[in-house]
Amino acid sequence: MEFQDIIYEKYDGRAKIIINRVQKLNAFSNLTLQEMIKALTDAWVDKNVGVIIITGAGDRAFSVGGDQSIRAKGGYESEETDSLDFPLDNLPLPNNHALVLQLIRTIPKPVIASVNGYAIGGGHVLHVVCDMSIAASTAKFGQAGPRVGSFDAGYGSAYLARVVGEKKAREIWYLCEQYSAEDALQMGLVNRVVPPDKLNEVVEEICASLLEKSPTALAALKASFNAETESIWGIHNMAGIALNLYYDTEEALEGKNAFMEKRKPDFAKYRK
Ligand SMILES: CC(C)(COP(=O)(O)OP(=O)(O)OC[C@H]1O[C@@H](n2cnc3c(N)ncnc32)[C@H](O)[C@@H]1OP(=O)(O)O)[C@@H](O)C(=O)NCCC(=O)NCCSC(=O)c1cc(O)c2ccccc2c1O
């Protein structure tokens, strides 16, 4: 399979998706997400694959979310994706992001986030919905939405609250601060923190352990863990509609423009 924005590898029972936009700290575009959907679907149906790893290229970032440089009034611009032969190429970015999240949750195989640097915004949500997150000690975690004129009022907030608790989830979203890997471990946001040069090795060991286990037992457990939070998919879809409408507003644009112009946003006039 040929991809432009991701590297997709399969070896020894593993499928590995590497988000490969190093120059943008692995921020994703529509194409990146569509390629991830294609790779995740392939990993789902391939009987040789028992575990999936998601990581970022380079040593600075896992992913920093939506690519702000291609965001305009009305949402994210699409690239030409004909070469991908993809039936969903007209979907807006929040819909593609939602499909990636729901695929990660639905695939009846463990999905491991190997967090090698910044996991920010929609990139943070990607690791939150993975079955396990293993972090380099240099990784940084956080949401950015209210700072840059965006929000994930579905899995990114409601499911995050299940993981770290209501108060912490609200703090993470409202204040848009960054958290260290040790902070993340303490709040139950990641499973393990390891030195950066050991990240790959530890993730490989965890994959080896998972591959020794009964795949049907793992699949049933994953479905069971998902069951209680499955209703969040409904609110996630509603939130996607709200986000697409919000991206059409001057308020949302002020957040994006301020980030790109490296200045503080001025949201004062939008208070209600
Ligand atoms: C990630 C940072 C905290 C890093 O800060 P640092 O100071 O280390 O580095 P710089 O700020 O100088 O960044 C280096 C370089 O990278 C560019 N860059 C960083 N982030 C992005 C980005 N998201 N898109 C494009 N480019 C990015 C930056 O401009 C610099 O370029 P230079 O050319 O100047 O060198 C910090 O960069 C940061 O806070 N980044 C913003 C993160 C962000 O806003 N992410 C998007 C949030 S919204 C989102 O992800 C999102 C997507 C969805 O699809 C959703 C779907 C449904 C619901 C919600 C969604 C959602 O919220």
TrEMBL record:
<feature type="binding site" description="in other chain">
    <location>
        <begin position="64"/>
        <end position="68"/>
    </location>
    <ligand>
        <name>substrate</name>
    </ligand>
</feature>
<feature type="site" description="Important for catalysis">
    <location>
        <position position="76"/>
    </location>
</feature>
<dbReference type="InterPro" id="IPR018376">
    <property type="entry name" value="Enoyl-CoA_hyd/isom_CS"/>
</dbReference>
<keyword id="KW-0474">Menaquinone biosynthesis</keyword>
<feature type="binding site" description="in other chain">
    <location>
        <position position="150"/>
    </location>
    <ligand>
        <name>substrate</name>
    </ligand>
</feature>
<dbReference type="InterPro" id="IPR029045">
    <property type="entry name" value="ClpP/crotonase-like_dom_sf"/>
</dbReference>
<comment type="pathway">
    <text>Quinol/quinone metabolism; 1,4-dihydroxy-2-naphthoate biosynthesis; 1,4-dihydroxy-2-naphthoate from chorismate: step 6/7.</text>
</comment>
<comment type="similarity">
    <text>Belongs to the enoyl-CoA hydratase/isomerase family. MenB subfamily.</text>
</comment>
<keyword id="KW-0456">Lyase</keyword>
<feature type="binding site">
    <location>
        <position position="262"/>
    </location>
    <ligand>
        <name>substrate</name>
    </ligand>
</feature>
<dbReference type="GO" id="GO:0008935">
    <property type="term" value="F:1,4-dihydroxy-2-naphthoyl-CoA synthase activity"/>
</dbReference>
<protein>
    <recommendedName>
        <fullName>1,4-dihydroxy-2-naphthoyl-CoA synthase</fullName>
        <ecNumber>4.1.3.36</ecNumber>
    </recommendedName>
</protein>
<feature type="binding site" description="in other chain">
    <location>
        <position position="76"/>
    </location>
    <ligand>
        <name>substrate</name>
    </ligand>
</feature>
<dbReference type="InterPro" id="IPR010198">
    <property type="entry name" value="DHNA-CoA_synthase_MenB"/>
</dbReference>
<comment type="pathway">
    <text>Quinol/quinone metabolism; menaquinone biosynthesis.</text>
</comment>
<feature type="binding site" description="in other chain">
    <location>
        <begin position="118"/>
        <end position="122"/>
    </location>
    <ligand>
        <name>substrate</name>
    </ligand>
</feature>
<dbReference type="GO" id="GO:0005829">
    <property type="term" value="C:cytosol"/>
</dbReference>
<dbReference type="Pfam" id="PF00378">
    <property type="entry name" value="ECH_1"/>
</dbReference>
<dbReference type="InterPro" id="IPR001753">
    <property type="entry name" value="Enoyl-CoA_hydra/iso"/>
</dbReference>
<dbReference type="GO" id="GO:0009234">
    <property type="term" value="P:menaquinone biosynthetic process"/>
</dbReference>
<feature type="binding site">
    <location>
        <position position="247"/>
    </location>
    <ligand>
        <name>substrate</name>
    </ligand>
</feature>
<dbReference type="InterPro" id="IPR014748">
    <property type="entry name" value="Enoyl-CoA_hydra_C"/>
</dbReference>
<comment type="function">
    <text>Converts o-succinylbenzoyl-CoA (OSB-CoA) to 1,4-dihydroxy-2-naphthoyl-CoA (DHNA-CoA).</text>
</comment>
<feature type="site" description="Important for catalysis">
    <location>
        <position position="247"/>
    </location>
</feature>
